[in-house]
Amino acid sequence: MVKMSDVAEKANVSKATVSRVLRNPETVKKTTRDKVMAIIEQMNYQPNILARQFRRSETNTILVVIPNILNTVFSHILGGIEHEAGKNGYRVLLANTNKQVEKEYEFLDHLKQRQVDGMILLSARMDKGILAEVMKQYPVVLTADYLEGIPIPTVTIDNVSSGRTATEHLIKLGHSRIAHISGPLHLLVSRDRLKGYRQALLQNNLDVDNILIQEGDFSHESGYNQMTKLLALEHPPTAVFAANDEMATGVIKAAKDHGLSVPEDLAVVGFDNVKLSAIYDPGITTIAQPMFKMGNKAMELLLQQINGDDSNKTQYVLQNELVIRESCGAKQKNHG
Amino acid sequence: MVKMSDVAEKANVSKATVSRVLRNPETVKKTTRDKVMAIIEQMNYQPNILARQFRRSETNTILVVIPNILNTVFSHILGGIEHEAGKNGYRVLLANTNKQVEKEYEFLDHLKQRQVDGMILLSARMDKGILAEVMKQYPVVLTADYLEGIPIPTVTIDNVSSGRTATEHLIKLGHSRIAHISGPLHLLVSRDRLKGYRQALLQNNLDVDNILIQEGDFSHESGYNQMTKLLALEHPPTAVFAANDEMATGVIKAAKDHGLSVPEDLAVVGFDNVKLSAIYDPGITTIAQPMFKMGNKAMELLLQQINGDDSNKTQYVLQNELVIRESCGAKQKNHG
DNA sequence: ATACTAAATGTAACCGATTACATTTTACAT
DNA sequence: ATGTAAAATGTAATCGGTTACATTTAGTAT
Predict the structure, then answer these.
(1) Where is the HTH lacI-type domain (chains A, B) (predicted)?
(2) Mind listing the pLDDT tens digit for each residue in A115-135?
């Protein structure tokens, strides 16, 4: 493997000059620069990045901690991160935790060992104290998930107000008996969507009936099962707000299997606006999270930290949007 | 940042001994080993991985080249890779090409510059000659996609026979006018599934009617549009084999919008067995690709190459499986 | 106690680029 | 021609582990 000193020798200059040609071309006279570049071409010299990384102790790599790659919400965010990272010459290392906290700690070591320049968490289940300690020393951004009472740069949507928007939409359509199938309640996201649901009901002088609130786990199956339970009630709901789109499909399937039509007999609103919600029959009315943009923004904030700009350690709340399709009954069935 | 020499000094041993304690503990006497380990703990010493990587010129990182993160087939394979990599102390660097060939070349440089120990391609659009050259020198495995006439280690299913299985299933159910909506025909995968479709028809003495073969792009929309075309024919098909599950959903939606029921008026078979096919209403009969296993196997083969075992540069063909759900009419509608 | 071998540890070179600092060259004014 | 500042280049230390080889220590047999 040809190295810098080989190039230097052949070009009759010092290693330092070759290095400068590559990293600070403007400090080298044009004639020497051209000469060196020619030799580099000719010898097909590739700098040893490992040596460079070691010497400069920077990796141009960031770590993305993902609870579950198979969840399209996360892959969309990942796409946004990847895009912004690529634009800035950064590479993305993947860290799949499979929802295990221990894995989060494991990947934290990468950061501490400076194997990556920064870290974006799409899930923060680890101890808040530890995280607070880490983010004092290293660039960290949190997105998709968020925490209370710790000043970590975060990019999210407002889940409380989103939950409210979704529920209010159903109220406006004339429903008063509205159920909610939540995400796992140990997640703040889930609790906030539930909070929004409650707020909407209360603000519209509707009772909050606890029997109408069921906890799911974001899976189709849990949506199906919880909806089946709800349909067995003496006074079943006429509308359901599901905390994500996949559960919404479960809800719809359960309703159909029970002989009901959606949206005629049951109105459904989901959450996320993943492709599934557009494809499903009926199309699912949902709250759109700007997933790609969240990834972009998170990476942007991380880069600021990496480049030593600590001024921006704030929380970013991006705009969400109600996307109306067929499942809520506000729109005619229609393809596209 | 505390370094190895600090530990050595405090423990009254040489750097070499500390290094050995970490990398070859069995070569160090137990008493010294314990002493050194104690100091390491006490000083909270973290070895500088960058220095190690540089010195040993290995990264314990592999690169996965993905045409599109948002496609769940690829994320499942990625999951399998990640799992196997993690088990073996390897990290996974993500390379999203967004289907651009230039990106593939760009990421090739990572490999050449030894920034990664090996590479798994989920898409090989680059020039075969270049790829052949690269794989002589570096560990490379191809999965999901494959190429003809180049002896690169590959992990796939047999797409021809899968296409045949899917089509034969429809023939057995009594259909004789069977359409095929293919993937993009510049992909070998798509051409092979089409080939299987043709073979099945011919082997069963059925005519291949070219008007029933339409090219899609794996998206729901293309499935919808092509199906709409087919339904406008004088003799529309009674069954459709779509080259992936997402297009199958488009087919089903088009049929419904045309007033037809699936499977009663139109039988549909998809391909991939992604979650969508299980969730959709009706559930989609499909060919299961063992995606996670493909990732696992690909990583396994790559590790063999990295560890210098070149004996196994072969093609792996994994088992596919027909998963029967409601969309083909062979099974009663039924949840789960 | 002695000799010899194996085990344990130490010494120092090395990986290949980067960069602070020193030196030489160039450009320009007088 | 000469002095001076700026530009260009060179010298050499450095980053922090790893490892071939040399040396010391321990273990065993005689």
Answers:
(1) 2-56
(2) 899 999 999 889 999 999 888
Q: What is the amino acid identity at position B15? A: K
Percent above pLDDT 90 for chain B: 79
Check residues 162 to 191 of chain B and report those whose beta carbon is under 7 Å from nucleic acid strand C. Answer: none
Minimum-distance CB partner of A54 among B54, B91, B114: B54
Angle at B335 between CA A229 and CA A185, to 5 degrees: 45
Select from 3.40.50.2300, 3.30.300.30, 3.40.50.620, 1.10.510.10 the CATH code of A159-289. 3.40.50.2300
Going by C-alpha positions, the residue among B193, B121, B124 that lies closest to residue B164 is B193
Query: Is the Cβ–Cβ distance between B237 and B177 less than 8 Å?
Result: yes
Helix (H, G, I), strand (E, B) or coil at B70: coil
The domains of chain B are located at: 4-55, 57-156+291-315, 159-290
pLDDT-derived band at A335, boundaries 50, 70, 90: very low
Yes or no: domain B57-156+291-315 corresponds to CATH 3.40.50.2300: yes
Instruction: Give me the CATH code for the A4-55 domain, please.
Output: 1.10.260.40
Helix (H) or strand (E) holding B254: helix B245-257
Q: Specify the pairing of strand A61-66 against strand A118-121.
A: parallel
Tokens linked to B311: 């004996």
A58 to A138, A223, B49: CA distances (angstroms): 13, 46, 11
Instruction: Tell how far CA B235 is from the center of its chain.
Output: 37
Q: State how far the Cα of B42 lies from the Cα of B25, in Å rounded to an integer.
A: 18
User: Based on C-alpha coordinates, what's the Rg of chain A?
Assistant: 26
Which residues in A lie closer than 8 A to residue B279 (C-beta atoms)?
Answer: 220, 246, 249-250, 253, 276, 280
Q: Provide φ and ψ at B156, rounded to 5°.
A: -150, -175
End-to-end Cα separation, chain A, in angstroms: 55
pLDDT exceeds cutoff 60 at B333 = no
Task: State the Cα–Cα distance between residues B157 and B289, nearest whole angstrom.
Answer: 7
pLDDT digits (tens, 9 = 90+) for A130-188: 999 888 889 999 999 998 888 889 999 999 999 999 999 999 999 999 999 999 999 99
- Contact call for A70 and B72, based on CB within 8 A: yes
Q: State the fold for domain B159-290.
A: Rossmann fold (3.40.50)
B75 interaction partners in chain A (CB closer than 8 Å): 69-70, 72, 75
Give the distance, in angstroms, between the CA of residue B138 and the centroid of all CA atoms in the same chain. 20
CB neighbourhood size of B300 (10 A):
18
Reply yes or no: is the peptide bond before residue B263 cis, omega within 30 of 0: yes
* CATH number of the A59-157+291-318 domain: 3.40.50.2300
Pairing of strands A154-157, A118-121: unpaired
Which of B 24-43 have CB under 7 A of nucleic chain C? 27-29, 31-33
Same fold, A4-55 and A159-289: no
**pLDDT score of B53:** 93
Closest nucleotide to the alpha carbon of A53, via C1' = C17
Closest CA to A22 of A35, A10, A2, A36: A36
Averaged pLDDT, A36-54: 94
Tell me how far CA of residue B105 lies from CA of A86, A96, B127, B128, B270, in angstroms: 14, 26, 9, 12, 33
pLDDT at residue B168 greater than cutoff 70: yes
The chain-wide mean pLDDT, for chain A, equals 93
Which residues are within 8 A (CB) of B307 and not within 5 positions of it... i.e. 6 or more apart?
A: none
Average pLDDT of B21-40?
94
By DSSP bridging, strand A285-288 and strand A140-143 are unpaired
Cβ(B218)–Cβ(B271) under 8 Å? no
Coil vs helix vs strand at B2: coil
